[in-house]
């Protein structure tokens, strides 16, 4: 108003802020009286609204509606609400507003009614031992709920208690704690407990306290030291990987810290490196162990010089000191030691077939216990073939029986035996020695011709070759390469036959064969086969060639053997014309399996033929005599050529039945039909056999066929009765396929099977 112009301003209905102290206890308390300058004759009604009146918190303030006096009805707390803003209203008795609403502000004045509070009850800090003065460790802080703009919240910090040393101080304003003097030593005092205080009113008001715990961190300022200067230990000889004992140390630094861990070193007394020393991580002591077996007979005591120091080096501020040293005396105790085979395994060589009783070696052990008088004995611990005999005192090994090769007990030509050596101490100790015996191969087998027979074409240069091979039971170098040649005792063979190498060191020849010449990588390394060749055209038939086979052993062994060769009729391409002989040109001959298949097929054919004839005989027993002469068609079953696959019975290649009825009409042919099942060199029947006059003579007819086949010396015993593979049309007898279907015929009589001889006895037992 002093700076404004001197004019009157109407200031109706303006209420200045009202201040009231918190925690005011005189209740109710008059705060202010409001009055409107538009007083009506009938009067004015006053009211207030806002927080503390009609809003939360309710009922703190009230007003006399007629006088306009505003009252405080309860104590105030500045920390909850530091001011209240109300709205005052003036109305006439009719409820008409006389004045515009005005603001009524009530300010709560602060009082020092709150103590300072530390943020935590215990503060923790760390500082390394030996820290310089002025090193700050930690900061403590507190808060005060009073008005921060007043002294009620002005805090000051202090240390109430820290012990007699007085090593720390605190900043009164910030609460930072720092060191004040040198000499912090963890080994003397590792933890400091300080009681700190915070006070408001700049240190003169309300107070509170808390704990400040300061830990000293360890540094390596103390070297380790042995608890004594000498240590004594004892260990058994030949014991490796065992602990001999401990050396004890002490370190003042914090246990378990890097400044506490010790490291040991053996400085003197162990030139062989038989000992090692390590640190026990739990006790920090040194553990001396034996890493190499000790021998009492060589050295019975050791004197070791051991040093110790920390893993981490000492702090530079620590005065230097020499490493701690200790003397460790180790005594080696004598014990019984097992015998030792100086040569293990012992390898020797023995010729195959060495006679029993032959001395092959002396295998003995030595006793390391030279200071003790002991006797060694020997025994065979492992002799799988029971080939050896061992002297229990001298250790000499002799053959017990002839050493044979090959044997299941040999491993790559070696025989393995185990020898046990035992001393007579208490308790006795033993050792095992391995005796490896090489059984040297002796050339005691001559090569064998494989296969001993073959078929080839009789024309030179057109399939007239046969591949020959050989085997030898001897192992290298007494086997291949083999030498093949015609027997020198029969020089005339060289006019028609020749033998040449098939493989061996040489150049690849025609057809993959190797011929003589310089070595070639495509050729096998040794001769195992040869080629027999025809030099002149030879007639068909069997030939027996004596061959001389020799191996490469030392000395070589040779043997003369016969090679059975069948010369066949040659085709244009140099192969045999006959299908059976062509199959045999593989050079392997007829195997036992093939022979059994052929014989089984022949016997089955005979059984089927016999069953068909027997059925016809049973149905026509009254017509046994002269049946063939009265019938236009032959009653015998048509034995089909079952080795041909076709579309049915009409698709079979059958023979003319007239050859059976009138064989004399066909005997003038130059050459009878060639048998399919006979080898090339087999002979042909001299003449067709006489047919039986009736089906009852079938047994004699079959026996004649079998006898003709068995009497032929040039071929295996094939059945030649293949003239029965003809089937006529309209035969009285049913086809063979219906034999099974006739098993249920009630009129069938099989008693006649017992009259056919021993070959049909089994059938007679089944159907008679």
From TrEMBL:
The record's SUPFAM superfamilies line, in alphabetical order, gives: Cadherin-like
Q: Which domain of life is it from?
A: Eukaryota
- Name the UniProt record assigns to this protein: CAD15 protein
- Which GO terms label this protein's molecular function in UniProt? beta-catenin binding; cadherin binding; calcium ion binding
Q: Does the keyword ATP-binding apply?
A: no
Q: What does this protein do?
A: Cadherins are calcium-dependent cell adhesion proteins.
Q: Which GO terms describe its cellular component?
A: adherens junction; catenin complex; cell surface
| InterPro entries from the UniProt entry | Cadherin (IPR039808), Cadherin-like_dom (IPR002126), Cadherin-like_sf (IPR015919), Cadherin_CS (IPR020894), Cadherin_Y-type_LIR (IPR000233), Catenin-bd_sf (IPR027397)
Species of origin reads: Ptilorrhoa leucosticta
The keyword Mitochondrion is annotated on this UniProt entry: no
Ranked from the top, the taxonomy reads: Eukaryota, Metazoa, Chordata, Craniata, Vertebrata
- Write out the transmembrane intervals: 592-614
